[in-house]
Amino acid sequence: ILLLCISGMKAETARYSVPEEAEKGSFVANIAKDLGLNAEELSARRARLVPDGEKQNLQLNQHTGDLVVREQMDREELCGQTEPCLVRFEVLLESPLQSFRAEVRLTDINDHAPVFLNKEIVLKVPESAMPDTRFLLESAQDPDVGNNSLQHYSISSNEYFHVYTRRRNDGRRYAELILNKALDREQQAEVAFSITAVDGGTPPRSGTALIRVVVLDINDNIPVFTRSLYKVPVMENSSQDTVVVVVSASDLDSGTNGEIAYSIVQNSEENFETFKINTETGQIRLKKTLDYEETKTYEIDVQATDGGGLSAHCKVEVQVEDVNDNAPEVIITSLTSTLSEAAPPNTVVALFNVRDRDSGDNGRTTCELPGEQPFSISLLASGAYALVTSESLDREQVAEYNVTVRARDEGSPALSSSKTLFVRLLDVNDNAPTFTQDIYTMVISENEPAGTSLGRLRATDADEGENARVRYAIEAPPPGTPAAASFMSVDVDSGTVRTLRPLDFEKVRAFELVVCASDSGSPALSTQAVLCIHVQDKNDNAPVVLHPPPDSSSAGELVPRWAPSGYLVAKVVAVDADAGQNAWLSYELAKATEPGLFNVGLHSGEVRTARAVTERDAPRQRLVVLVRDRGQPPRSATVTLALALVQDFSDAFLQLGHDPASRQQPQTAEEDLLTTYLIASLGCVSSLFLLSALALATAKLCKARLRTHLSPTSPSCYTDGDFVSDGLDVAGMGTLSPAYRYEVCLTTGSGRSEFQFLRPVL
To answer: Membrane spanning segments where (predicted)?
Structure first.
């Protein structure tokens, strides 16, 4: 883009012309055609004119590409006598940025007539003047230039004089009056005629003045200047009333005819306003300060006149020397006051020209940027510069710049001027939101109602506007993972975290969510953080007894009467679904048939004998064990144990078959009848068993006697290895196994059998 811009800047200047005083809206040229663009492209690229000066005299129609006159222009007002009179401007195009220089020449029209400053010119001529003597006349003024300026002079018909038009070095024309024949004051003391100045316009314009020639008496000698041409340099910073030069003339006559008076022939209004002469000494002084940039050379016609009316002329050429009295001017032609922070290096920010009205070294300029800023100056053409970015910009570090462009000339002493450009950076969404914490930890008690606020997430964005507006959301969990996002919600604007439903510590103790903070830029940027939710336990669960099972009406345990103190009777096992202190369980004996006989371990739940069991203790005991947690408020559960005190295990069934509570209930006739049937059945079964055992013993006895005759007698016993045993020693465990076994031991030669009846599996 920069290369294209530079190439456009250095393109050849387009030149047009238009007559001065052209009406508003007058067509000058078609810019689009000259640039090779159509009207649509010209409008799309937002073409505009940038004048070289402060006044906008021309206008560009973006729809047609026509360059038209915006305001009437007076060539004499804009340029004076300078020719050609040029109105310079630049055509700026965007996307990409290009600049084309152009100039419109104002062609002069004959809108001014020549004018004599004095409508009556008095000329004193001695009667002794010889024919062909020349007399310098005051020049007429015509601000037009070229053919429209003053071209020649003419005088009305008379027998004594004719006029001759001459041309100065600067192109201006002046008149000399030439004597045709000798004058005779005695015949005619005064000659009057008119002079006419005519320009070359179409139609021509003219101006007239009256010339009165006064014939003087004889004066033999005319004044003579020491030099016919005086060339003097004058510094432009010379103050008012400074002596420019002293002209000197002498006259050989005596008396009043030898007295010389000096005067400046008013050949231009500018000379009249700038210089004055001492009529006696010939000193020429400044009436005002000079300006090299306006006029570089003055030509002054000085006339020396003696007392007899004779005169002579000399020319004074004043060369104005330049002084470094003009500081450079910085003229901004195009400025992009707002710039995207994403603009790459070498992006054009502004186009400007530097102009110094001085000449030579005084007019040579350089540009610089004081201070350290991410900008630089690129030279496009002579006096044309571009302010470009020199590095990447970051609005978050510096949002706006005051760029000072300083122009300095090479004069002595050097002069400088500066102009400050305000550049504001437009935000680009180049910063993602940032959470204040990488991990947020929030705590909530279980069973809190839906909508409870846990806290607030906070993320900041260094951008501005919509690019800094942060929106919060919970990231969707990966497929196959628990939907923890269904427990919580995050307010999209404030980041407040709230529950969607009550939480149960026993089901969910802690979980993590991935939260996302995204801005509203385009494209949107986002960042993530981890939200850890910890659920605090409440004592909302009572202890649950696992053993003995709570669904049984009573749990029976056998306790031998020979049990010592500390004998383990049973163990209560309970759990609590809560955690921490809410799940710490303690056991205590809430109710007992014999309060002092048993105790319960506070933390173990073991039911042991507090003392040795005695014969006086009731055979059936009922214990109520209370299980309590340490929550606030505490929760508890109870379990009932039924214990049977047995002498040996043969009457275990009988003991366990009666519940101590049954004594409190009335015995009905049906229960008594059932008991009778059971006893009778047991007696029958026992009789059959005894008969079978007796028969078996008799058979064995017979075999043993028979074997005695055949071999020596050797005892034999069927030990535990002959039977599959899954029982346990009751005495060793201190409690009863849920399964029982029958143990039969037979010895040869023995006449009786021993049986141990244990409690069958119920």
So the answer is: 674-697
